Amino acid sequence: MKYVTEYRDAHLVQAALREIKRTVTRPWTIMEICGGQTHAIVRHGLDQLLPAEVELVHGPGCPVCVTPLELIDKALAIAALPDVIFTSYGDMLRVPGTHHDLFTVRANGGDVRVVYSPLDAVKIAQENPHKQVVFFAIGFETTAPANAMSVLQAKALAVPNFSVLVSHVCVPPAMHAILGSPANRVQGFLAAGHVCAVMGYWEYPPLAARYQTPIVVTGFEPLDVVQGILEAVRLLEAGQATVVNAYQRAVTLAGNKPAQAVIDQVFERRDRKWRGIGLIPQSGWGLRPTFAEFDAETRFDVHNIQPEEPSICIAGQILQGLKKPHDCPAFGNQCTPESPLGATMVSAEGACAAYYRYGRHLVLETTLDESTHETQI
Predict the structure, then answer these.
(1) Of 123, 271, 293, 309, which is the most exposed, with the fewest CB atoms less than 10 Å away?
(2) pTM
């Protein structure tokens, strides 16, 4: 398949890795901002094929992972109400709130349904006029256009029993927060190609200049990721804090203008909490006043919920690139995909889930066992 097969060519990946080895002269720390890139890196073992000088750390680019616990608890409260049909993408059902998850609500009799499009939720609302139908509208810039369209559709079709619980976040403000932190370790970024396909990358040059940090826009196939790392290393070695678009087959500087127009019509920028990170100013979207009638938080009055994070979970530090999943004392034992403590173990794009799925916890166990001469694997 064009634009897929050739970007999985092992010979081309190996050639790019050799070029990285020839180029790098000192240690560099690069963050891939997107959880999809994290899974590609861990699945293909790309981080283990890089020279020792290049360290990859994992960023907060997983919308499920950064949805604040407070909003998860609000979703749980709404979903448990009688006469409510709560709709969501599947990976949100297992994200733990303070006490339980949406699967538990469904097991206890709540009408919780998985949908594949927010427009499916609008259709469910049309078919169930005596029920309140809520869609859990989470995501980065990639899902915002479709979620905005669901609100426009509900308004155009006069579907008063449809509402959205909004948890939309934006990538550039999160990069500001990471680079501006006193604990920051990131020296270069791999930017998420699908986000930039929607929004363009015009916001990134000022960010790169302000923090003197190069940014490379890249994709998700093995060759995309390795070429992105190579471009980042070249910029770092040359001392150039600029932006390179290494994903030109999908991304332009301006992005998708019609999609941006739909987002701007329905949403406005808001301060937004990120799970494990905290409040980031102007880092998310909320409904504009003209669409306030579709705001589930207001409709169900769930503003005063107080969440409680598990103390042992270090997901926040992982999302900021300060630690890695195997640094967590709960990883692989108390926290697994079957019994997750944090969203980074649940989501299809979570770093902890990637490390677990591709056996990094087994490598860790083997290392520990060998150190005590008791190999159990």
Answers:
(1) 271
(2) 0.88
